[in-house]
Amino acid sequence: MRAFLTPALLVMFAGTLFAQPADRDITFDVGKGFMDAIDDFDVHADGRIVAVGEFTSVDNVPRNYIARLHRNGALDLTYVPVTNFSWINVLAHPLAADGSIIVGGSLDQTLATHLNRIDVTGAVDPSFHSGTGFQGAVNSILRQPDGRLIVGGQFRVADGESRHLIARLDSDGTLDESFITGGGFEGFEVSALALQPDGKIIVTGSFQSYDGNPVRNLVRLNSEGSLDATFSIGSGLDRDGTHLIAQPDGRIIVAGEFKKYNGTSAAGLVRINGDGSIDGSFTPGSGANSEISGMALQSDGRLVVIGGGITEFNQVPRRQIVRINKNGSVDDTFDPPVGFGFCRGLDVVVQNDGKILAGGLFLQYGSSDGTGLIRLNGNTPSAVPSDVSADDVMLAPNPATGAFMVTSTQRVDRMIVRNLLGQTLSTYLPRSTRVRIDLSDQPPGMYLIEIQIGLVRRSLRVVRE
User: Fold this and answer.
1) Which domains does the chain carry?
2) Are the C-beta atoms of 54 and 105 separated by less than 8 Å?
3) pLDDT digit string (tens) for 206-265?
């Protein structure tokens, strides 16, 4: 009998499994997850995660609109905020070093937005008070290093005073009268804010002017609120901007619904130099084929973007989450093997260790449960435990004259056929326990069949006679 007919070689598995970039991190588990949507989340310096949204329980434990998780995803049972909010939709970013958070939401089911500070124990801080609040939605809260808060949204009144779409609060929640915005913005909303290292403030959204000066959907303000005339955007964004990142080197990344920036093609994603000119070294081509709902910058300069409707980026197939190199090209090393099912409001946060949190409203990631929040591996492959044994997968006939069947006790999410040179011959996304593979058009020899079941990848060998 030839060696490849022995039972040990009929189905051969790799001895060591490694989680690749974009694989789900199975060391992070939120149990039954969030009962309804996460609207905003971030990571404390100690690795704990805070989330706010429309949920009323986490892992079947009651939590109204605010929850804190341990680094492994388990609910922090010691943190039980009790507030008067009827919903919460926004956090101040970045989080404070003392473990406190600033949250924004509604106290009375109206469109008026109030802010509260919650201390590290979960108690409401009575020394922080935003007065009568903001008469309209708040979309973004930017915390400055000195503790003051820049607030952007759809409001035109803040604590009874005229403030068109933007205001700054002192660290105790009162209006900062030294932040002079004049007539403020004319338009619909401020969607996102970002603080540059020099203290200047980048603003994007849907607006046509600031304090009487024509600016289209993007502007930079000086630290006291005046328009920065050195930031020249020309005709600006032809449609709304929705997300911002201020890079440490002074360049700015903007995402949104726009197709052009200052007359130059920019398909929903553009990087801008510190003077407002377009950065020609960043070329994302046709960009994402659907809305970008969140983005985060890695410490190495690569950009992670996410959106529930994204199926390709610059014509490269991807499943809702994409990592982009510093030059705007798609990062080939980050290719999610599975995607989210029904989802909305997806956002991403990159942890200090490079792992990537993805949150929003969704019920699963691939074939695995992942209600509301999951973590993906970022850069370095890491060993993961396996719960798939050789007995779980059968391949027959082997050897095969052409076609053969792969049968699994668990649903197969992805299957790749390669030759011994490592070249990919075909890829299958069966979402099934039975897969038919045909090698009739291939020469005789040994072939590798890589199977992914949930988070686990295994390699099988088959002989084509």
Assistant:
1) 3-16+386-464 (2.60.40.3080), 22-380 (2.120.10.30)
2) no
3) 999 999 999 999 999 999 999 999 999 999 999 999 999 999 999 999 999 999 999 999
Rounded Cα distance, 363 and 38, in Å: 12
Query: Residue 124 corresponds to which tokens in the numbers above?
Result: 């409401």
Between the CA of residue 129 and those of 5, 111, 174, what are the distances in Å?
75, 18, 7
Report which residue type is found at 11. Answer: V
pLDDT at 455: 59
Main-chain dihedrals φ then ψ at residue 434, nearest 5 degrees:
-130, 130
173-176 LR contacts (CB < 8 Å, sep 24+):
173/115, 173/117, 173/128, 173/129, 173/130, 173/131, 173/149, 174/129, 174/130, 174/131, 175/131, 176/148
Tokens of 321: 């989450």
Q: Tens digits of per-residue pLDDT, 408-426?
A: 888 787 888 888 766 778 8
pLDDT at 386 over 70: no
* Spatial separation of the C-alpha atoms in residues 276 and 254, rounded to whole Å: 12
Please give the Cα distance from 451 to 393 (Å, whole number).
9
